[in-house]
Amino acid sequence: MTFLKLACLAPVLAGLSLRVALAQNAPKPQVSTLTVTGNGQSKAAPDIAYVTVGVTTEGKKAQEAAASNAHLTQQVMDALKKLGIGDR
User: Cα separation of 78 and 31, whole Å?
Assistant: First the structure.
């Protein structure tokens, strides 16, 4: 009876051994890899600047101070234009 059990068990063990051997020799799936490395730099002269100009004037009347402010502000703007700095 022991011989009969071994005789039945032998093909099963052989089949498992074959299956393990085939699994070890099976081609491994390829993993696709894409590696990208980059570096960049850009240089350019600035083409715009934002400037806030303020003038403070004191006067006996608000109207006189406003007129003086307008005149002084215009002088500052004219000086900037002479330097090549224009408004947009």
Answer: 68
Distance CA 48, CA 86 (A): 10
The pair of structure tokens assigned to 68 is 């003086």
User: For residue 85, what are the CA distances in angstroms to 46, 49, 79?
Assistant: 12, 9, 9
C-alpha separations of 64 from 9, 54, 74, 84 in Å: 116, 17, 15, 31
> E-assigned strands of 16-56?
none
CB atoms within 10 A of CB 76: 13
Pairwise CA distance, residues 1 & 52, whole Å? 106
The residue-averaged pLDDT of 50-72 equals 87
User: What percentage of the chain carries pLDDT values higher than 90?
Assistant: 12
